[in-house]
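Quick review question:
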């Protein structure tokens, strides 16, 4: 099987924390330009899988290729790690902005320190991406002056400033008030339309249905089902997925009702 054109390839990867086995031999791939939604109950291994993709977590066994680089090798150097992080952007649930830096400073820090860009180049880049996420007027603001939705859009712009080839999103809307979710998903939808390779851990089934090319359902550290959003979300084959979706629907009805 030729995997050279794939953005991420993972073969039989396993990850444990002490005696707790979180990933149990997962195999799959993410194609370039593909948007993949990873769904499943809390604790099923979704976030751990995502964190392995940019080596925030090292896998215990198996093989993991990101942009044709084997990131599972035990002697993976700090130089290789920095290179990987420039290619693979990550947006976290809790934004992870530096509170003591302005929005502009948050965006220009990595391009200057990691990519070696000048202050002027970095500021131009930051302006470009702040405009893209609709926050050009907030460049001099500090994180505490922003809403949750604005913080997350700044976090997305910060990742884009590194010109990544892949974007990872770990529950990017779960810390937001419901009325702010839409503004973040809109930015993500725009990135998807522009061909960005994206892996999104999410509970937003509407986003998965409308934007993802493929949905992967994880349960207890294994891939139970995967396929098109229509196939996985509208025609689940396993009892585990049917149960997960019905619980999710019940929770949504509870909130809206």
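Suggested answer, residue by residue:
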């Amino acid at each position: 099987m030729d995997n050279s054109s794939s953005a991420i390839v993972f073969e039989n990867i396993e990850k444990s924390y002490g005696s707790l086995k979180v990933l149990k031999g997962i195999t799959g791939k993410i194609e370039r330009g593909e948007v993949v939604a990873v769904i499943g109950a809390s604790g099923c291994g979704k976030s751990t899988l995502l964190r392995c993709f940019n080596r925030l977590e090292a896998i215990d066994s198996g093989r993991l290729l990101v942009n044709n680089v084997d990131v599972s090798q035990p002697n993976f150097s700090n130089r290789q790690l920095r290179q990987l992080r420039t290619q693979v952007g990550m947006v976290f649930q809790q934004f992870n902005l530096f509170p003591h830096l302005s929005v502009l400073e948050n965006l220009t820090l990595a391009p200057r320190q990691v990519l070696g860009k000048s202050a002027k180049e970095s500021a131009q880049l930051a302006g470009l991406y702040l405009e893209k996420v609709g926050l050009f007027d907030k460049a001099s603001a500090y994180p505490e002056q922003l809403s949750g939705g604005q913080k997350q859009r700044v976090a997305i712009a910060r990742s884009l400033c590194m010109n990544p080839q892949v974007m990872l999103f770990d529950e990017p809307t779960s810390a937001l008030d419901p009325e702010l979710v839409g503004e973040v998903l809109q930015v993500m939808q725009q990135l998807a339309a522009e061909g960005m390779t994206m892996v999104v851990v999410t509970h937003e089934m509407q986003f998965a249905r409308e934007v993802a090319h493929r949905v992967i359902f994880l349960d207890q550290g294994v891939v139970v089902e995967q396929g098109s959003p229509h196939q996985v979300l509208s025609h689940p084959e396993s009892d585990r997925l049917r149960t997960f979706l019905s619980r999710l629907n019940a929770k949504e009805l509870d909130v809206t009702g």
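Why it works: The chain has one domain: 6-256. The CA atoms of residues 31 and 138 lie 35 Å apart.
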